[in-house]
TrEMBL record:
<protein>
    <submittedName>
        <fullName>ENTH/VHS family protein</fullName>
    </submittedName>
</protein>
<dbReference type="Pfam" id="PF04818">
    <property type="entry name" value="CID"/>
</dbReference>
<dbReference type="GO" id="GO:0006397">
    <property type="term" value="P:mRNA processing"/>
</dbReference>
<feature type="domain" description="CID">
    <location>
        <begin position="2"/>
        <end position="137"/>
    </location>
</feature>
<dbReference type="InterPro" id="IPR008942">
    <property type="entry name" value="ENTH_VHS"/>
</dbReference>
<keyword id="KW-0507">mRNA processing</keyword>
<dbReference type="InterPro" id="IPR006569">
    <property type="entry name" value="CID_dom"/>
</dbReference>
<dbReference type="GO" id="GO:0005634">
    <property type="term" value="C:nucleus"/>
</dbReference>
Length: 137
C-alpha cells in the first residue's frame, strides 16, 4: 500500500471535484502517485460515481480518462481496474438525453474500447513471450 493513501481522503477529494481541467489533473496526478492502490482508488471512484448527480458524473468520467492516460507508464493496473467498472458507468450516463451528456461519455467509451483492445493485445503478447521463453529452455 502506498504511504499516505486513505480512502476517506480520496472520497473527500472526489466530492470536491469540479469540471475544471486543473482540479481533474491535480486529482489524477494524486491517484497516479498512489498507483499501488489502484483497486481501492477505482472502487472508491465507482461508489462516488454512482452516488453523484448526473452533472458531476461527467467530471468523474474525465478524471477516469485522465488517470488511465497518465498511469500507463506505471503499468496497466488502472486500465484493468477501470475496465471492470467503466462499461456500467458509461451505460448509465449514455441514457442522458442532452447532446453534451451523450457526447462526453461516447468519446470516453471510444477511448476505453481502444485501450481495452490494446491492453488485451499487450497481455496476449506477454503471454506468448512467456510461453516462448519456457518452451525454448
Amino acid at each position: 500500500m502506498s504511504a499516505g493513501f486513505d480512502k476517506q481522503i480520496l472520497a473527500q477529494k472526489l466530492s470536491k471535484l469540479n469540471s475544471s481541467q486543473q482540479t481533474i489533473e491535480t486529482l489524477s496526478h494524486w491517484c497516479v502517485f498512489h498507483h499501488r492502490c489502484c483497486q481501492q482508488v477505482v472502487e472508491t471512484w465507482d461508489s462516488e460515481f454512482h452516488a453523484a448527480p448526473v452533472e458531476r458524473r461527467v467530471s468523474l468520467l474525465y478524471l477516469a480518462n485522465d488517470i488511465m492516460q497518465n498511469s500507463r507508464k506505471e503499468g496497466n493496473g488502472y486500465i484493468a481496474e477501470f475496465m471492470r467498472v467503466i462499461p456500467a458507468a458509461l451505460n448509465g450516463v449514455l441514457t442522458v438525453r442532452d447532446d453534451f451528456g451523450r457526447n462526453v461519455p461516447k468519446r470516453l467509451a471510444d477511448y476505453s474500447i481502444k485501450h481495452a483492445c490494446c491492453f488485451a493485445s499487450n497481455q496476449h503478447r506477454s503471454m506468448e513471450a512467456e510461453n516462448s521463453l519456457t518452451t525454448n529452455v
